[in-house]
Amino acid sequence: MTSDAPAQPRIVLATINARYTHTAYGLRCVWSALGDLRAVTAIREFTLEHPPLDIAERLLTDNPEIIGLGVYIWNVAAMTRVVQAIKAVRPEVVVVLGGPEVGYEYEDTPIFAWADYLVRGEGEEAFPALAAAVLGGEPPPEKVISAPPADLARLPLPYDAYTPEDIEKRVVYVEASRGCPFDCEFCLSALDERVREFPMNAFLEALGRLIARGARRINFVDRTFNLKPRRVAALLAFLHEHWRDGLRVHFEIVPDRLSPAMLEWMARFPAGGLHLEVGVQTFHPEAQAAISRRQNLEKTEETLRFLRTQTGALLHADLVAGLPCETWDSFGAGFDRLTALEPHEIQVGILKRLKGAPIARHIPTHAMAFADTPPYEILQTDLLDFAQLQRIKRFARYFDLYCNSGNFPTALGLLWRTRASRFEAFMGLSDWIWTRTQRTHQFPLEHLVRLLFTYLTAQGVDPPETIAAALETDYHRLPGRRERLRLSGAG
């Protein structure tokens, strides 16, 4: 909630975040654009841990006339129950929906049926006009309001809406541009007509105020940060000049478009200061062509290698399973190619059919089947059957636990020795854990250690003493872990 929020607001802007550390950037954008109505508007944020009925009760406690809700793929199920409860007990409250999950294919959804209005697209200009009309006693007759892209030069920047608690304890989001020039069909940005930019001077002034207020976790939400070298240079130079201890800045980049000058700038930052999300998605040329993804794979590898060895940036790279034309073998080869570059994290994602995304055109030609509930993951294709995709999904979960967690750097070196391919090596462990436990969650660290010890011992590549020593080293590399694991004969 904004620091100067009214005790009894007429308008409440609310959403359900995936976790507490996230802040709702979209709500703050709308709040900042409300002009005089900001004085009667409050922001309320919840997480998926809050029961929907409790959320509805909290929102109605404010006794608002209008409730604007941000609806996303991760919260639509819970938000549907919130809206149903609100309209059941207080039908006179005007509920307005917005967000990407209700921008397309909304007509037959329960949440749309219960709501009063839906704002499609960017809400900074459309929502204030709608709210003024409703509060003025002249609500518009149309239920769906399609908002054109806003003029970014005219929008007030939302960063002063972050509270001291946001600054101290949470990730704050910033945005230097909107849109994406690429046409990757699994992404809603494929529908963007052009890239638009916020005025640089005003943006840098606002960013400087955030840093001066103590912001230390800043995430850029730009779809592609490194489009224009001159703007990137200005942003990086500004950040370098205003750097503070403990600051971490996150960017989403297209690796084959990082120029030598950009790479040189990135090498100047302290270790761990930059967190780069690298969209690789696939190394399979046929899959790239099928989804209209333009990326030079050799240049991508070259850039990742430089970033990993010549900078202190933390690299998070994405691979997507289930793309059209991707096979089991091509996905495994891509995984091996990416792991050889040693990014700090690899997110093995399962293809999702986002509402409105052009990936849907491949459904008949590639026999693609998707789940009909969020997050709409792929179930099978003509080249990957249901069982294979389930195995990859479990692989992704166990990879987070063993690799992305950073808890097993020494023992993983032994795991890679068990097969010629790292994909095959980790798939072997993944299949074995699933067969043994029939679960993918609720694994204490000690249980993960013992599972890996038992598996590696059964492979017979290294003696149990070597495996135990590697796991002891990993377990005790962080302070506070003093007890010995006693792994001999563990199972």
Keywords:
single chain, Rossmann fold, pyruvate-formate lyase- activating enzyme, 3 domains, six-stranded parallel sheet, 17 helices, 16 strands, about 40% helix, globular
Per DSSP, the total helix count is 17
Overall spatial form: globular
Helix/sheet category: alpha/beta
Radius of gyration, Cα only, in angstroms? Answer: 24 Å
N-end to C-end Cα span = 49 Å
Query: Any idea what the CATH architecture of the largest domain is?
Result: Alpha-Beta Horseshoe
CATH class of the largest domain: Alpha Beta
CATH topology of the largest domain: pyruvate-formate lyase- activating enzyme
Mean pLDDT value = 94
Structure characterization notes:
The chain has a six-stranded parallel beta sheet, with helices on both faces. Strands 7-10-11-12-13-14 form a six-stranded parallel beta sheet. The mean pLDDT is 94. Helix 8 packs parallel to helix 9 and helix 16 packs antiparallel against helix 17. The protein has three domains: 136 residues, Cobalamin-binding domain (Rossmann fold); 214 residues, pyruvate-formate lyase- activating enzyme; 87 residues, no CATH class. It is built from 17 helices and 16 strands. Helix 12 links the parallel strand 13 and strand 14. It is globular, with a radius of gyration of 24 Å. The chain is of the alpha/beta class.
